[in-house]
Design brief:
This protein is α/β, with parallel strands linked by helices. Among the domains are: 132 residues, Rossmann fold, CATH 3.40.50.10860; 153 residues, NAD(P)-binding Rossmann-like Domain (Rossmann fold, 3-Layer(aba) Sandwich), CATH 3.40.50.720. 45% of the residues lie in helices and 16% in strands. It contains 15 helices and twelve strands. The strands form two sheets. The chain has a seven-stranded mixed sheet. It has a five-stranded mixed sheet with strand order 1-2-4-3-5. Helix 2 packs parallel to helix 4 and helix 2 crosses helix 15. The longest helix is centred in the C-terminal third of the chain and has 26 residues.
Amino acid sequence: MRPRKIEKRLDPEYLTPIYRMALLQFEQAADKLALDPNVRKRFTDPKRAIMVNIPIRMDDHSVEVFHGYRVQHDTTLGPSKGGIRYHPDVNLGEVSALAMWMTWKCALMGLPFGGAKGGIRCDPHALSRNELQRLTRRYTAEMIQFIGPEIDVPAPDVGTNEQIMAWMMDTYSQFRGYSTPGIVTGKPIRIGGSLGRTEATGRGVVYCIMEAMLHLNMQAEGKRAVIQGFGNVGANAAAILHKEGIKVIAVSDVKSGLYNSNGLDIPALRKHLENNHFVESFPEGDRVTNAELLELPCDVLVPAALSEQITKENAERISCTILAEAANGPTTPAADEILRARGIFLVPDVLANAGGVTVSYFEWVQGLQNLFWTEEEVNNRLEKIIKKAFQSVLALSLSEQVDMRLAALMLSIQKITEAKKARGLFP
């Protein structure tokens, strides 16, 4: 099969399961498009992949060396854009897959960006605030020649937040000699962040769910949702779904899950988590594991945790009408085939979770102009872009008789291919 041919050309460091998954998805879309082989080659390898060692002094005065990555997959449409994650499992293959998905996501939303992703292999929960700051600043210094407002613009991801972005911005600005807020997005409002950015990914997920319900002639009121992952994305999606009258019957975090058939009190749960780190200590629900949670009967299932959660082993037991991928790569290709055959309506990750990068684009634009928008303006613009993209994907899905993932990738790849042909090949 074609991905095996590609693998012969790739460095073994790339060939993780998640990168193989990204390649297979690309090849399926490229085959459907009958993509020019010369263009196809340019998509399979990232434009640039940087690996760095990051030595920092720990609080006990010892020196620890961490491994950092930044991959820029494509810059045909503009600067590359993508998050930075701090997680013990970060590796080159994972970051490369995420960068590829960011390329498709930006093109699908019509943003003037290519895809990038970065990360540091570490456990941020095991590091003190001072250690995190030293780690972030040294990583920024190591990457400084490869990032910039017109080169590559980082953002938060798993294990990072607005404080990490503030340290990155300050470090970059110190090297440049002047304040450069456009170097990152997802930073605090008081130093140039955008209103609505924190909730943007979760809000975009809900916009997609509501459009899917409209297409399927489903009424939102009283429907049941299950959310795997109760971090920034999952918690905000849950809160907005709750306001829309959808009962969130189960949520989970890294330790355990919580289930209440009558619907969880999401505002009370979020308030509870301000002083308690995990959902298991919330008294109003029964305990379930993450694996059990995915198989609960519901109308809407939202995987908002990590990749490869829905596989060929559990896909037959998934019991939902709509599957909205708030996480990146939560469904494997083998599971895709099973879900498609069972008639489950999929909202793929490159569409469902694109609200974050869209409002990051808004933040970048506001920073360049020094002209800031109200939260209502941000949300209205986001809603228009997400709904337009959803309808474009749905239309292609229906006309070509393909699933929503394949339709989304076909649209994205076609857009960038046309841009590559227009620009030509240098020299």
